[in-house]
Write a structure and sequence with these properties.
Blueprint: H1 2-9, E1 20-21, H2 22-29, H3 33-42, E2 49-50, E3 56-58, H4 60-75, H5 80-88, H6 92-117
Antiparallel strand pairs: 1-3, 2-3
Helix pairs in contact: 1-4
Length: 118
Amino acid sequence: MLEQIDQELELPPIPGKRLFTIGEASALCQVEQHVLRYWEKEFPQLNPTKRRGGRRYYRAQDIMLIRQIRHLLQTEGYTLAGARQRLEGADQREDQSHLRQFARQMRSELEELHRLLG
């Protein structure tokens, strides 16, 4: 499902980094930074790591979640409440799809690392 979302929204691939700044997350998801900060308040699942001075750092899972939220709101036409409810009540298949996407991403990163080291 997430690959389909990325293709529909024509989003760039997620680089093999561990953490992303809010500027990087904004660019990867094509969502303004102030919108990301607002969504953090609206979607409890979106909880980036905060470091000194309140700087936010997003993980790859956060980027995928942001893309899913964007898809629900902009493509599917959900309201914020509807999107929140959809994410909270996601069925087992969607959870597994998310895990498969994450596993594919990790495998790709490991293969790239192996290629560079080999």
